[in-house]
# Entry
Amino acid sequence: MENQKKRIFSGIQPSGDLTLGSYMGAIKNWVALQDEYECLYCIVDMHAITVRQNPAEMRRRTIEQLAQYIACGLDPQKNIMFIQSHVPQHAELGWILGCYTQFGELSRMTQFKDKSAKHKDNITAGLFTYPVLMAADILLYQADLVPVGADQKQHVELCRDIAKRFNSVYSETFVLPDPFIPKMGARVMSLANPENKMSKSDPDGCIYLMDKPEDVMRKFKRAVTDSEMAVKFDKENKPGISNLLTIYCTATGKTMEEAEAQFAGQGYGVFKPAVGEAVVELMRPIREEAQRLLADKAYLEGVYREGAQHAQYLANKTLSKVQRKIGFVGR
Ligand code: TRP
# Structure
């Protein structure tokens, strides 16, 4: 894997079950990138504990998330797939980078402001320094590009600022990463509340990748729309229908024009179940493959062990360089 390919790092927290939004907005793009780039795809469990988690649930979701990554088409032979807490270099570099990050910078992070408002009784230091750990994730591997949703752009920019600062104090050490918001990515909104992003914590508006077909159909039939009749893309005035159209096009590969033409003159009573069916068909092989993999714990263990080993090898190169530059005695 030592070659000229650009390097990519991205991760998802095992803080909730993966959703159709995670697939269409992130993982589907990761799959498209795996041949052209050298990719590290991580399950960021250390980020997940910045808010309280149920331990048994998180353990289950972590393994399930790995199975789902593979079932979605990520090839463990082509990508380094691993669990963040299995590579202690993340925590080590995180501590160091925290000493090159300003309190004021972290105070300006909008996600911190939102999350601390939501978890008023548990605003931990970890929640506050979360972007520093994320910077360590990225910089450890000298990643060039970081595929993220728009909500994470600010964190990648902070990562870049930290890297720049470190480089200017100690000489070139880190590659400066760029956020990579792929054109193809679909921003999937909640089915119950189409003004908001589909979220793992909103079961009614959310399709989980492991949902059974009948649950998927029920949620689509109940999807919030509007009082008109026309199946037309109009984000401002018809957020619900526009979201369903986006989902339909992403699931079927049709263009928006094709989809609008297909449903012209038909009511929502025809359109909504059609979207549900397209999603059921899209998810069926993913769900079945994930279930098959989950029955083979030894295989999954092999994947995450090998991934962690490979990641540690790369991470150590950066970490030892950093330790030497800042004045730590070599081990
Ligand atoms: N903070 C990201 C999110 O919640 C997850 C994440 C952690 C991440 N470390 C990362 C994403 C490094 C990209 C790169 O979505």
